[in-house]
Amino acid sequence: MHLSKKCSAFKVVLGALLIVALLQLLYLSFLSKFHGKQQRYRYSELFGGSGGKTNGHPEKNWRKERLRYSLSTGGIFDNSGQYRVYKSLIKSDFTTNLKPGSDPSSNILTLATHTTINNLHHLESLLERWQNPLSVAIFAHGEDVRFATALVYALSFFCPQIQALVDFHLVCLSGETASFPEKDREHFAGLEDCASVFLRLEKHRDKYKNYDISGNVSYPNNLLRNVARSGTESAYVLVIDIDMMPSADLHQQFLAMVRKHKPAGDEVFVLPAFEIRHARKIPANKAELVQLYQVGEVRPFYEELCPRCQAPTNYSRWVNSHVRETATLEVAYTITWVDPWEPFYIGPNSVPLYDENFKQYGFNRISQSCELFVAGYKFSVLSSAFVVHRGFKIQGEFHARKDEENKRNRVLFRSFKEGLKTKYPSSIRRC
């Protein structure tokens, strides 16, 4: 009798476990179907459903057709014939809505930047800080061409602030072409909103560094800078790398400054450049930055790798002047350019382009600031604006061919300087 009761109890427990397992299977099946339905809905939103039907979002359909048209042109080749350039692959609402005769102050300053797809995740925090027009040139190679096209489209679709403010341009090797990403379902799987797109980019971040691309492909940094610059019609442009951050409210402060005193056409406005420990939060203003600088958590940009490249900025003078934070931005002092100074600056969109012969590491920005000097530009350091690079630059973190590239570009720089004598025959300045 006792054994019979035990068997009955065991059967009841077993039956209950079977029912729970069955319910779990039904629940998982429901979730899978729901998720699949949700993904099909998202995919239909992205591409208007099968057969090219519209999805009820005319502004997003326009964005899709704009991308399709940009890709159908096949891009244009750069001057060397080595790279294919898709300018204005995605245009922001800000750029699209600019009309002739509109208030010029609405388009006074654009931030231009460049990257490979593995560093594009920095765009999220950069745009959060900048909150104004931004032009991004992306270099992609191999399979990353498809991935970059798909993810840029997803960003422009899911992220309202990117729709409003960011223009994207794509550069790849001349033998590669970008295609409309409608069939690349694997790249869109799991993308449901803006946060999920940046999460996908974050997972892609460690594939390689910009200067260490597979297949010995050269990163055309100066071409990318020029592409990003040419993608804007702003009166002034700030060109920085995508892993750098400008001080907060720089756009508004600069706008107020130029409204108060119209700058000369041959003047650029230098932003002292710093680098900060990875664990530290990027300072918003000069007071916060100086506090971190005084305890060694922030230091001059390239202090370990090339102190001479930034030393002419005169960090001591800048740090100790105008420490009191004000809303007014002004010129603190002017500097005569000396080799090898490579300042970051806000300049008129008419300044000379970067020389596209410089690729990979070394002399790509020095060459351009050298030309500015020979062309007669004045370098004015702003009182409280700055840019900060995320993380300290140290020797051990660079790619293996850095020194080799630097030597090659040093030779190129010598011939570049000789060329400036012909380009600016009336200039008495030399670099």
TrEMBL record:
<keyword id="KW-0464">Manganese</keyword>
<keyword id="KW-0333">Golgi apparatus</keyword>
<keyword id="KW-0472">Membrane</keyword>
<keyword id="KW-1133">Transmembrane helix</keyword>
<dbReference type="GO" id="GO:0000139">
    <property type="term" value="C:Golgi membrane"/>
</dbReference>
<keyword id="KW-0479">Metal-binding</keyword>
<dbReference type="GO" id="GO:0055001">
    <property type="term" value="P:muscle cell development"/>
</dbReference>
<keyword id="KW-0735">Signal-anchor</keyword>
<keyword id="KW-0328">Glycosyltransferase</keyword>
<dbReference type="GO" id="GO:0035269">
    <property type="term" value="P:protein O-linked glycosylation via mannose"/>
</dbReference>
<comment type="similarity">
    <text>Belongs to the glycosyltransferase 49 family.</text>
</comment>
<keyword id="KW-0812">Transmembrane</keyword>
<keyword id="KW-0325">Glycoprotein</keyword>
<dbReference type="GO" id="GO:0046872">
    <property type="term" value="F:metal ion binding"/>
</dbReference>
<dbReference type="Pfam" id="PF13896">
    <property type="entry name" value="Glyco_transf_49"/>
</dbReference>
<protein>
    <recommendedName>
        <fullName>Beta-1,4-glucuronyltransferase 1</fullName>
    </recommendedName>
</protein>
<comment type="pathway">
    <text>Protein modification; protein glycosylation.</text>
</comment>
<dbReference type="GO" id="GO:0015020">
    <property type="term" value="F:glucuronosyltransferase activity"/>
</dbReference>
<keyword id="KW-0808">Transferase</keyword>
<dbReference type="InterPro" id="IPR043189">
    <property type="entry name" value="B4GAT1"/>
</dbReference>
